[in-house]
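B., you asked whether I could sanity-check this one before it goes into the benchmark set. Here's the sequence:
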Amino acid sequence: MTDKRRWLMAGAVLLCSPALTFLPVQAAPAANPAAPGPAASPAAKLPASAPRPPRKTLHDRLMDAEKALAMAGNEKQAGEISERAEGLRSRALTGSVQMLITDSHDALEKHDFQQAQDDLTAAITIQPDQPILYRQRAAIRLAAGDNNGAIADLGVTLQADPGDPTAWGMLAEAEHDRHEPEAALQAFHQMLLLNPKSPDSDTQLKTLEKARDGQQD
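And here's what the prediction gave me:
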């Protein structure tokens, strides 16, 4: 992969819940021992309200988006679902972490790979439980030619979020760059399972297959 392509890919990688409603509660009439009346009929009791379904967690919504992506009917629909999934992956990032991501992107535009990586490392220190941050640092390391460092970060990402097709695609790139065609193809096939409508996937697949077949000769 050329340096220009690495830089563009890294830049691309860096670039509601419903409100709760409450039913009104009807107060029961106060007992009046001084004025006894007929016993209340069981039929007069208010029916119990149906239990509310549990709200989906952020993880549940991400899983739903990943399943929808795998069944997308066309490239446009897949792109819309991918965008929604990316928003969910970034939903829990704090303001300070988002500022560091912006700083990292600015450094990347200046081809200052070390500063861009340092900014992402600082973001990871603040929120080490967010797998998307490791993926973003992997993109910078991949752009800088540090394939082993990128693969290490992608391993952390995919352990926490194995349904991330972008991470699998990046892993395929990194394995291809370090001349591991079988590993590259395995990662790319996994990406295709998660996002069959990925743009230019046919061309990329042919390139990886050609690299594997060439090595077998």
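One thing to flag: The radius of gyration is 26 Å. Otherwise nothing jumped out at me.
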